[in-house]
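Here is the promised in-class demo. Please do not try to memorize the tokens; focus on the logic of going from shape to residues.
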């Protein structure tokens, strides 16, 4: 299994940038310098914007509202206001990163984009045949604008922050099924793996999808995700476990011989 090392290093650097910006933001707020405050916030927005795009794209592709009803800029503009008005809520600079995601989630929830979940997919995930998986992939690709990615609204121009490059490392932690994992890794391209994971996540409950993304793509801890989502750590751990179990089963059933 390959890991995009530079990508993970960039994520750690980005989180450090966000954390280290906090004292300067507090100072600028006390000085009443909102122009400089907003300029500094702008530097830490790329990844937040990508996260917002992902949530809006899923809602649009599922038909919860039209492509033109909401844009990432609407959320980001409001987030600027929320940060300036409420940044004093953050007591320690190391909490600032997760606080940003908590505020962002709250703004997204205000749009009422949390979809109702048909639990048939999750309940039957171990029963789908390879042709059924292939049909679901084709439908997902069609729903996602024809290329397996939910690029339904504008993306941030800086590609270094524009990643949903899921890998097998996001799905498999232990090597209990080492033979199957090696087969999947050998037989599939990185693009195939990424598209399959994205398709399965698309069909999972929004809570599972959100926890998986915050844990893998945004690299937040279970404790931080619990704070962001107002869940217990146990609830978050179970959601992540269920998401990974569903992904593992989907890979085994679609790409390996039982």
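The designed amino acids, position by position:
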């Amino acid at each position: 299994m390959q890991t995009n090392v530079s990508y993970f290093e960039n994520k750690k650097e980005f989180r450090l940038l966000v954390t280290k910006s906090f004292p300067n933001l507090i100072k600028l707020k006390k000085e009443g310098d909102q122009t400089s405050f907003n300029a500094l916030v702008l530097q830490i927005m790329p990844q937040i914007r990508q996260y917002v795009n992902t949530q809006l794209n899923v809602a649009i592709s599922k038909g919860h509202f039209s492509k033109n009803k909401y844009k990432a800029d609407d959320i980001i503009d409001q987030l600027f206001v929320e940060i300036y008005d409420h940044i004093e809520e953050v007591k320690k600079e190391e909490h600032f990163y997760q606080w940003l995601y908590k505020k962002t989630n709250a703004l997204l929830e205000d749009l009422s984009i949390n979809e109702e979940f048909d639990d048939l997919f999750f309940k039957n995930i171990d029963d789908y045949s390879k042709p059924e998986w292939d049909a679901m992939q084709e439908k997902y690709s069609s729903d996602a604008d024809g290329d397996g990615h939910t690029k339904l609204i504008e993306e941030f121009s800086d590609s270094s922050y524009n990643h949903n490059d899921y890998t097998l490392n996001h799905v498999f932690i232990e090597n209990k099924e080492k033979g199957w994992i090696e087969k999947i890794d050998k037989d599939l391209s990185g693009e195939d793996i990424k598209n399959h994971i994205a398709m399965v996540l698309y069909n999972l409950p929004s809570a599972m999808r959100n926890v998986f993304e915050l844990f893998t793509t945004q690299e937040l801890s279970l404790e931080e995700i619990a704070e962001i989502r107002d869940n217990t750590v146990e609830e978050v751990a179970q959601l992540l476990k269920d998401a990974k179990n569903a992904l593992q089963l989907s890979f085994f059933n679609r790409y390996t011989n039982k």
